[in-house]
Amino acid sequence: MNRSFEDFAGTLPVIGVQISHLEVTTSTMDVAWKMAHDGAPDGTVVIADHQSAGRGRHDRSWVSKQAQDILCSVILRPRVALAGELLMLAALAATDVASSLGIEAGIKWPNDVQVGGKKLAGVIAESKTGPGSGGEIQESSDLITAVIGIGLNVNFDPASATETAPDSSSLATELGQDVDRQDVFQRLMQSLNTHYSTITTGGTVIPIWRERLTTLGREVTIASGKPNEPAELSGLAHDVDSIGRLIVRDENGRDWPVSAGEVTVRSIR
User: Fold this and answer.
1) What helix, strand, coil percent values describe the chain, rounded to 5?
2) What is the spatial distance between Cα 83 and Cα 235, in angstroms, rounded to a whole number?
3) Which of 96, 169, 175, 266 is in Cβ range 3.0-4.6 Å of 118 for a Cys bridge?
4) Are the CB atoms for 149 and 124 separated by under 8 Å?
């Protein structure tokens, strides 16, 4: 008999202290935010078998069929200063899962987990500051309430979604066999707990996140709609700064810190 996802609740110090498993929902992000407002504690997890309106960055949808993949959101209540690393630890956790199964994955800045240039997972992070952002449990303006969302392709078949999810892969595709979702979920929760513990006890995940970035050393084109930044910036992605911004050096040798935008990596000749 298969274990329920909810059976993992409370097995780790923080992540998964509470777990809510839904067969179908609009978006685990929406459910998690409602739970956060109702006072759900740090580390609460929402996982769904299917989302009718799953979302990624830039209001894109996330495609997944019933009970194939990991579609989850995690409520976190860290210090404000740690907000910039939440997206990083989510991406790191997804690469950790792949690595634990013998799959070499990297991170395309800022949040796409890829295998051989094909998307394996996507992560998003949303946060709100102040005592009004998370119900009675939020007591200090030094804290934020955040929700990180992770969509990890487990048994997804890329051939079935060439139009809606081009250039994608999955753990099953890479391994050539179906993969147990409960096992993947447990590995993901363990990794999230490890990285979250690192940043909440004074450490940082930036160095290891930087090591896994596949974007560095590549010629990139950034599409940006931000004021005081070029509408399109091309140059060498040569580093990231202490808050995770991509540093792009243009043809004149000027460095531009990029905090958001659509990254296109040019092929290297």
Assistant:
1) 30, 30, 40
2) 27
3) 169
4) yes
